[in-house]
Design a protein that fits this description.
By secondary structure, this protein is an alpha+beta fold. The chain is built from seven helices and 15 strands. Strands 4-3-5-6-7-8-9-10 form an eight-stranded mixed sheet, with helices on both faces. A five-stranded mixed sheet has the order 12-11-13-15-14, sandwiched between helices. It binds D-MYO-inositol-1-phosphate (IPD) and calcium ion (2 copies).
């Protein structure tokens, strides 16, 4: 499959998982917690991942899947393909009836993310990207190519962020954002990292950062940002990683990285 074909195939799976999640939304119930008591797992997180895994396995039995709920079984095979799946990003929003939740599916080839889909069923918004093919928002009216914000000064930026589930980390994240807030246009905490990144790609957020994200949170959304002309980086200009994921237009992301470093974000985790 080409990268574009992977993106289109991932799109069909995300649509199906989205239908499943919409159908289960009225009857959502917590079935477990993960890292802390606030890190909810509903009956639909696992159901969505099971559907995604089933569709991949049926069509491409040699591919490996890394999913938030089930992890990864086995090593990447000779075909070099690994799928990176957050079957329900924004579980707390989903549980409370807020619409910002998504299915996020990315495809890695030989370790590089080459295709990604983020589908936000309750908002009827879907985002698609493949390597070298641009990032696109899909609406009933058609496909629109995305570009990141043109804002160049952090003081004029609306900055998205997120908080982890661990109380200690939240305290550190809260101190950083409290000091950042008076120096930017505004701050948003929407509650779902994959949509946040798509909205950076679209310019609805000028930039975004969070410490502690998992790879499945940003694998697909990060490709949207890159294909829309932005970067996903850490504090030092390396690729985004769990310690810190900063997304935005290159110059703005660099300013944000410098500011976050001054605010002590290096010790945020
Ligand atoms: C969470 C969301 C949230 C972010 C957390 C993530 P989940 O993912 O993306 O916005 O702040 O760090 O864990 O648990 O809803 O899949
Ligand atoms: Ca997530
Ligand atoms: Ca999730």
């Amino acid at each position: 499959m080409t990268d574009e074909e992977f993106a289109e195939f991932a799109l069909t799976i995300a649509y199906e998982a989205g239908e499943l999640l919409l159908a289960g939304w009225q009857d959502v119930r917590p079935v477990a917690t993960k890292s802390t008591k606030h890190d909810l797992v509903t009956q639909m997180d696992g159901a969505s991942e099971a559907l995604v895994r089933d569709r991949i396995a049926s069509a491409r039995p040699d591919d490996v899947v890394l999913g938030e709920e089930e992890g990864q079984q086995g090593d990447v095979s000779d075909n070099g393909i690994r799928w990176v799946v957050d079957p329900l990003d924004g579980t707390v929003n989903y549980f409370y009836g807020h619409p910002a939740w998504a299915v996020s599916i990315a495809v890695e080839r030989e370790g590089d993310i080459v295709a990604g889909v983020v589908h936000i069923p309750a908002l009827h918004e879907t985002y698609l990207a493949w390597s070298g093919g641009g990032a696109w928002s899909l609406t009933p009216q058609g496909r629109n190519r995305l570009s990141v914000s043109k804002v160049v000064d952090l003081g004029d930026a609306v900055v998205g962020t997120g908080f982890g589930y661990d109380a200690g980390r939240r305290g550190r994240q809260g101190k950083i954002v409290a000091e950042l807030l008076p120096t930017v246009r505004d701050v948003r905490r929407i509650g779902a990292a994959a949509p946040d990144l798509c909205w950076v790609a679209q310019g609805r957020l000028d930039a975004h950062y969070e410490c502690g994200l998992n790879y499945w949170d940003w694998a697909a959304g990060g490709l949207m940002v890159a294909e829309a002309g932005g970067v996903v980086r850490d504090l030092d200009g390396g690729p985004g990683r769990t310690e810190m994921t900063i997304a935005g237009p290159p110059a703005l992301a660099a300013q944000l990285a410098a500011r976050l470093t001054k605010l002590g974000a290096r010790d945020c985790l």
